[in-house]
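2.7 Reproducibility. Because tokenized structures are sensitive to small changes in the input, we list the exact sequence used for PD-(D/E)XK nuclease-like domain-containing protein, including any N-terminal residues retained from the expression construct. No trimming or masking was applied before prediction.
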Amino acid sequence: MLYGCELRDIALGNGILPASLKNEPVLLPSLIWMMRLRHAGSEIPQFAFYRDEAARAQRETIATDLPSIDWVQAFMKRAAECELRLCGMGKYSLILEQTFRSRSNLFVSDGPVDFRYSQAAQIIHRYKPREAPSKMVDFCVFYSPEEGSEEEQAIEEICRTRPAQSINHTDLGDLCKRPIALSIETKRPNLALDNATLQFTHQSGLP
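Resulting structure tokens (single pass, no recycling of outputs):
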């Protein structure tokens, strides 16, 4: 789970890039554009690169799974086109799903991590704050343990003592026994941002 200080750092762009990308000429122009710096020729600020030497090796290993710049640019281009054409929310959600599914090395049918549309899921009544929306976020990334594994058995044991016998805060289908690792809510730019924040906060703050 990400804590407040980590979410703040991500929002500010603090330490989000591997140090190995500092002198990568192919990446710099695209990263500069993505970070919306004022001048195209500006350098990426030093605070954007990860500086913790003790954990550097681990961070560099994780960085090998980062999507290519071409992948990121294609995603941003499609989103920009949607904004220009005033597309509806359905279009934004479709683009997001297609783009994430294209990362087949991360989301594969026989792997432990999967990605699914979760808009139909409702928050279990015991967890839902008074007058809060019952609708969950649009997508979620979840962990799917191997059948018969120790992890699956441990999850099932925990579920027996939880509301609706679910490891998560919803009792929709297999999400009862598939721990959600990441939640994603899509909204058109400047549209119902407060509602999206409310939905995400309620979901992220649940046990």
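Confidence is low (pLDDT under 50) at residues 25-42.
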